[in-house]
Design goal:
Plug_dom, 768 residues, mainly beta
Length: 768
């Protein structure tokens, strides 16, 4: 069946490739319109801006490329009206007349304006797979982001949990998945991969804390395995964050809150208007820094401290070339109270915010450097090349079972991960005409190398007492994809793609040569998507695709017989719509299903990979964004999922920690000056903590609020979390553990990290 499915995809790609043959060249009597769209403030090009051209033969459309350029060909002579729209920018309309055979060039400048949902368009001509584009961009403008932990929840339907004092990557829940720390959700920032392969703590580990939230400019969300640009970990979906290209003004910000919380942020514009660095065209450069300290709400002070620094340059070197350079450094250190067993709180041994082992904690750091060169080539093509390097270090002390294995000294462990990441991605994108129809072809090529020193050791009060496993991992991913998008009619768009990934796994165990070795694996992932614009305000879509998440390199090398697959396949499909039932209401709805060949989790606490076996999920996502007045907005996300283990007996086939219902939403008052505020809720339902559902992770409902007042160059702000001061649990697990005085076999029950009690902080910002 998979071979037949693959043949259909290959046939579709072949037909699309043939359609771009020069045999379909335009007649010399037809005209062409080309141009550039830029931001009125920064002068930087605006990629992905939608354009509509109305004329004698009806309406056609396109979108700007990575350099802000656009092209509309195959046009009959006559008078036209061109309309350019971008969320957060004013609509620009211009009349023009084209003569037979003429090529006309123009430049449009779009001014930034207040958000108006009446002008939001639901179709995405440049990237139809980004059906959540309007939703995620609205959220970026409206939802308050106060820390790095607020970034991932910008993804509609995504909920997080923290269980290591704020210093470790969050646990992620999305589309009925407990993604652990990123096994089934692909994350990147400015093209830098965030997920870590073969990590000491968990496969796909995605730590976003090296990102300064005030620098984030946009988020692109892709649910499911339907987009060829994403490979490893892109099963439940992918999120692409990007930082600001330029600063409207420099910023200094100070925050002070409960639990001895302090935070300082500075953003400094390095190239004021009229100054240049590498060219005489539009350029921008800025520095950003962040320092955070808190003791948190636990009985044992957490002494959490984090420093972030970032420098970014973006410049137009010529009419055909742009360059982006970015460097950043992040370091963090903290103490942690860990997860606590319910019985220890119930019998009064510790308080809810206490600890069995208060010597947990750790440190981590990451340094990044990347360069992106974008070049316009002949024949309406764009070449984008990115090279990147990251140095990453991780050191974590944890104790989940307390005194189960070592009754005298305890079961504390130390996980370490030190790695160098080298990578390159290149894309060649070309737009051609098939008669009056646009065909966009994208070819991508990339590689990523992770060279890792990784270890799991025993420790007592942070003093190492022995080694469980240690070694060196070398893992390389070579990948290529071909993506074709053809507008079959004015309403119907076809997207077909094929991606190939090849992995090299090498592991050298420092203690046991029997567990050392090398393996290679490959995976081919076809995609097929259809989009139909029923009306200008209603788009229907049907999507399908194959994807995968990789296994830990250590498990791949040891399990040469494939008892644990190296690249377990995911098959996903969905049907849905993005539409506007009212002028100021944007709705995205999808019914989806996802099948995994094997759901793998690397258990960093034990140094092995655990298999849940085959799983099957289906569900529904609904996202609504409504503008009640010029300054008042409402939003709600509703996400339902039903997931089960395949082949397990009924009643023992629950997927541990997989949520079946989540919802977030709120009301936001947004004004450029004066008072702005937001009242938000989030809810995660009670769910099974084990396969038999004999232990349950408890759900919660929380209310948060944010307010700010802008006057002149000053902004005063306040944030309140958990307004109702409810007792709730963040990370929760069914864990076998032993406390002093208990039987040697231990007790299996719910262990949890308590959630934040009522918390408030204030801030002062100065713009200059």
């Amino acid at each position: 069946m998979h071979l037949y499915f693959l043949r259909i995809y290959l046939l579709g790609l072949a037909l699309l490739a043939l359609s771009s043959s020069p045999a379909y060249a335009q007649s010399w009597t037809l005209a062409m319109l080309r141009g550039t769209i830029t931001d009125s403030i920064s002068g930087q090009p605006l990629p992905g801006t939608g354009l509509q051209l109305e004329g004698p033969a009806g309406t056609t459309g396109t979108a700007t490329d990575a350099l802000g350029h656009f092209r509309l060909g195959g046009l009959a002579a006559g008078t036209y009206t061109l309309q350019a729209t971008g969320l957060g920018y004013g609509t620009r309309r211009q009349q023009l007349t084209l003569a037979a055979g003429e090529t006309q060039t123009l430049t449009l400048v779009l001014p930034a304006v207040a958000l108006n949902l009446r002008e939001v368009t639901v179709a995405q001509p440049r990237d139809p797979n980004q059906s959540l584009a309007a939703i995620s961009r609205i959220d970026q403008l409206l939802r308050p982001v106060n820390s790095a932990q607020d970034l991932l929840p910008l993804v509609p339907g995504l909920v997080i949990a923290q269980h290591a004092g704020g210093g470790k990557a969050e646990q992620i829940f999305i589309r009925g998945f407990d993604v652990d720390h990123g096994t089934d959700f692909n994350v990147s920032i400015d093209g830098l991969p965030v997920n870590m392969v073969s990590h000491a703590h968990g496969q796909g580990y995605a730590d976003m804390h090296f990102v300064i939230p005030e620098t984030v400019d946009a988020l692109r969300v892709y649910k499911g395995p339907y987009t060829a640009r994403f490979g490893d970990f892109a099963t439940a979906g992918s999120g692409e964050f990007s930082t600001k290209t330029t600063l409207e003004s420099s910023l200094a910000k100070v925050e002070i809150g409960r639990f001895n919380t302090r935070r300082a942020v500075a953003l400094l514009n390095l190239l004021p208007a009229g100054t240049h660095l590498l060219s005489n065209q539009t350029e921008s450069a800025y520095l950003a820094t962040e320092y955070t300290f808190t003791n948190a709400y636990f009985d044992s002070p957490q002494h959490f401290r984090r420093f972030n620094g970032l420098g970014k340059y973006t410049g137009i070197l010529s009419d055909r070339t742009s360059l982006m350079l970015l460097g950043s450094h992040f370091t963090s250190r903290w103490d942690a109270s860990g997860q606590v067993p319910e019985r220890a709180v119930r019998d009064g041994r510790i308080s809810r915010f206490g600890a069995i082992d208060n010597t947990e904690g750790g440190s981590t750091s990451r340094t990044n450097a990347t360069a992106v060169l974008t070049t316009a080539l002949p024949h309406e093509a764009v070449l984008r090349q990115q090279a990147y390097y990251s140095r990453y270090d991780f050191n974590l002390f944890s104790n989940f079972t307390f005194f189960l294995e070592n009754p005298d000294q305890g079961d504390q462990i130390r996980q370490t991960d030190g790695r160098n990441i080298y990578g390159y991605t290149g894309t060649y994108e070309r737009t051609s005409q098939l008669g009056s129809r646009a065909l966009r072809s994208t070819f991508g090529l990339g590689t990523r190398i992770d060279a890792v020193d990784v270890a799991l050791r025993n420790s007592v009060k942070r003093q190492v007492t022995g080694t469980i496993v240690a070694g060196r991992v070398f893992e390389q991913n070579l990948n290529a994809y071909l993506d074709e998008t053809l507008t079959l009619t004015d309403q119907l768009t076809l997207n077909a793609a094929l991606r190939a990934d090849y992995f090299v796994f090498r592991y050298r165990d420092a203690q046991d040569t029997e567990t050392s070795g090398r393996a290679t694996k490959a995976r081919v992932s076809p995609k097929l998507n259809l989009y139909y614009d029923l009306t200008p305000n209603t788009q229907l879509f049907v999507r399908s695709g194959l994807g995968f998440h990789s296994n830990d390199a250590r498990a791949v090398v040891v399990n040469r017989a494939d008892s644990l697959p190296a690249l377990p396949r995911a098959i996903g499909y969905e049907v849905g719509s993005t539409f506007k039932p009212l002028p100021a209401l944007v709705v995205n709805a999808a019914f989806w299903a996802l099948h995994l060949q094997d759901e793998l989790v690397y258990v960093g606490d034990g140094g092995f990979t655990e298999s849940a076996g085959r799983t099957r999920r289906f569900g529904a996502d609904v996202a609504l964004r409504y503008q009640l007045s010029r300054v008042l907005f409402a939003d709600v996300d509703l996400n339902y999922a039903h997931g089960r283990l395949v082949g397990a007996p009924k009643g023992e086939n629950y997927i541990p920690l997989a949520p079946s219902f989540t919802t977030v939403g709120g009301l936001t008052l947004r004004q450029p000056r004066g008072l702005s505020a937001s009242l938000r809720y989030r809810h995660l339902n009670t769910r099974p903590a084990n396969e038999a559902n004999t232990v349950q992770a408890r759900g919660y409902f929380l209310l948060d609020a944010v307010a700010s007042y802008a006057v002149g160059r000053f902004v005063l702000g306040a944030t309140a979390e958990n307004l109702l001061n409810v007792e709730w649990n963040q990370a929760q697990f069914d864990t076998l553990s032993r406390l002093p005085g208990e039987p040697a076999e231990g007790v299996s029950e719910l262990h949890y990290t308590p959630g934040t009690p009522f918390f408030v902080k204030g801030s002062v910002s100065v713009l200059f």
